[in-house]
């Protein structure tokens, strides 16, 4: 005769006591079997899969390549205490040393358009992360967190601006870790990050110290506007400062090549400067001088007439006597 089935228990007892509590109509389990009742739990398939997924994620995080420097340790709330030692341990290298993983080539472009390239591959970022990277690339130095929040989100309250900054940091770390580093509440681009804007300043310094020749890459670089698709107030001063650097550098390159007899490349650089500012007479003088050096008097006169008419139309001014005297008598 089969045993009578055990009725469902309506009272949650763990383990099932040997003395029946009030309302329990299930026969109690003897004390000797209480431990077996406690260990007889079997997780459901869904719970088992969730635990397995969690373990796989932990293993993946521990086995992922880690850079043992501070840049990968920037979180939305700042640096993690002791994280450099943990990162070095996981990477198998000394604290503060170089990781065994291969270094990446990271490039930030803010001329012509905004782009972040990692090993030549374009990385898509959120709008907030783009603002943050663009601001740090233009500033060329670490900025305080408070200053960044107020500059990038001026229309929001201080609390909301800091929340937006934390969110931008979190998203950026998720897409391309190691791009930023932080120290004493200052955030900046990681050391070794290449920025095309900095190449303009290096080229400008080289022109003032020596006489480099004009090349297509330099002209292409100097023709680029600073983040032309962005319309933020904090960019206005940087744009005007950079515009002057670009103009002076292009004119210096053109003048050097013109003095060396390289009139073709001098024309390329001078016309690029005119493209940046058509009312700039110093650039127009180099273009006209290059045409005259090649013997193209008609080209020089046409360039002068275009400039003279535009100058009068825009500002009701006339070209200087120095420019007029460059042309043959009666041509001006």
How does this model look, in words?
This protein has helices at 34-38, 45-63, 83-91, 127-139, 145-152, 158-175, 196-209, 216-222, 236-259, 263-276, 281-293, 297-315, 321-324; strands spanning 74-75, 78-79, 106-109, 115-118, 121-122, 143-144, 180-183, 186-189, 194-195. With 332 residues, it is α+β, with helices and mostly antiparallel strands. Among the domains are: 106-194, Arc Repressor Mutant, subunit A (Orthogonal Bundle); 197-324, Alpha Horseshoe (Serine Threonine Protein Phosphatase 5, Tetratricopeptide repeat). It has 13 helices and nine strands. The model is unreliable at 31-40 and 65-102 (pLDDT under 50).
Strand and helix map with partners:
Layout: H1 34-38, H2 45-63, E1 74-75, E2 78-79, H3 83-91, E3 106-109, E4 115-118, E5 121-122, H4 127-139, E6 143-144, H5 145-152, H6 158-175, E7 180-183, E8 186-189, E9 194-195, H7 196-209, H8 216-222, H9 236-259, H10 263-276, H11 281-293, H12 297-315, H13 321-324
Helix pairs in contact: 4-6, 5-6, 7-9, 9-10, 9-11, 10-11, 11-12
